[in-house]
TrEMBL record:
It is a multi-pass membrane protein. Residues 23-201 form the Cation efflux protein transmembrane domain. Keywords: Membrane, Transmembrane, Transmembrane helix. Its main location: membrane. This is Cation efflux protein transmembrane domain-containing protein. Gene3D superfamilies: Cation efflux protein transmembrane domain. It comes from Thiobacillus denitrificans (strain ATCC 25259 / T1). Pfam families: Cation_efflux.
Length: 204
């Protein structure tokens, strides 16, 4: 819209075809890993695997939304990033609640399943993060997508460590401890995305 006095808000840049392809691949991989980890979390009775599975589902939704808003004006991408930031915060709160329940139930998860599934998830997340690395310094929307991918890879390393801790101690506290750390990471990253998106909206 020429002459509207808000060119940075009303006009959207042409979507990057490479970024679009990366988002589609990330979407498919995250849906597949959600199914795998969800089944493994129930089989292993692992709250950290369940938290990671829910995170895969949330990321699949994030990539789908990112594809939808890719050709829209920057103000709409910022608004979407704001919503996604709050979603990340909500995920963190959910994991904290689930961890509290797991602690009260005294469940000891199966470490072998945790370890192998976490290694598979790590390989997927490192690949996705590598695909999106070049786009990490875009607007709040691109930043939120990059942060989700980075957090997933870090989370997988933590779950692998939890599996080793459960195997050594025969207790569930390493699993719960990692779930709490993942929750904290989600809360911190969500707050960062919310701040970034609000700053973009104020500028718009």
């Amino acid at each position: 819209m020429s002459g509207c006095g808000c060119d940075s808000v009303c006009e959207a840049p042409a979507p990057d075809p490479g970024y679009r392809r990366a988002l589609w691949l990330a979407l498919v991989l995250n849906v597949l890993m959600f199914v795998v980890e969800l089944g493994a979390s129930f089989s292993a009775q692992s709250v950290s695997l369940l938290a990671d599975a829910v995170d895969f589902l949330g990321d699949a939704g994030n990539y789908g939304v990112a594809l939808f808003v890719l050709g829209l004006a920057p103000v709409w991408r910022s608004r979407t990033a704001l919503w996604k930031g709050w979603l990340m915060i909500g995920y963190g709160v959910f994991v904290l609640g689930k961890s509290a329940w797991q602690w009260s139930a005294g469940v000891v998860p199966e470490p072998v399943i945790m370890g192998w599934v976490s290694l598979l998830a790590l390989a997927v997340n490192v690949g996705v993060a590598a695909l999106l690395y070049a786009h990490r310094r875009g607007d709040a929307q691109a930043r939120s997508v990059w942060l989700c991918s980075r957090n997933d890879a870090l989370g997988n390393l933590a779950v692998i460590g939890a599996a080793g801790g459960v195997w050594v101690t025969a207790h569930g506290w390493p699993d719960i401890g990692v779930a709490v750390v993942l929750a904290g990471l989600a809360l911190s990253s969500g707050a960062s995305v919310v701040r970034h998106a609000r700053a973009e909206l104020r500028g718009a």
